[in-house]
Design brief:
By secondary structure, this protein is of the alpha/beta class. Helix content is 18%, strand content 33%. The chain has three helices and ten strands; from the N terminus they run H-E-E-E-E-E-E-E-H-E-H-E-E. The chain has a ten-stranded mixed beta sheet, covered by helices on one side. It starts with a helix and ends with a strand.
Length: 155
Amino acid sequence: MKTLILVVALLGVFQTHAAPNEAIKVLNPSVKIDKGNNVISISNNFGLNSWDTVLDYTTGFIATRLFSRRACVVIPLKSSVFPSAEQFDKQPVPVTLKYSAWQTPIEDLSRFGAHVEALCDGIQTFPAVETGDIATFGECANSIIITILGITICF
């Protein structure tokens, strides 16, 4: 019986790592709003699928650190879509944006501001471009896809 349980557990582990499409879901994120610095920090602690996100309204960038990928992704913060830091806790985030991460890492993080630099320091960081078009986003079918705050990023 113990052998059967061990075999099933190992198959589950290997199947999880072999799946081409991973979905990282938000369970119970921790949100910190710093209205003075115009920055929102969101952390989702879920084992290997944990991630941290920083929305820096001053520099106009969002960065997400994906612990399972040991990587960061930086995208422009669309102030026309996201509620301001003052309104963030009162207003839901009605976002459905799609991005595709580039394969070339960013060399200099300082241009994205201190908050993004602190989050992504020491790991590969990739820019992402908005795809918007569902047909273009279909190229991500065999990639890892994550969705955070209504933003879908394809690797």
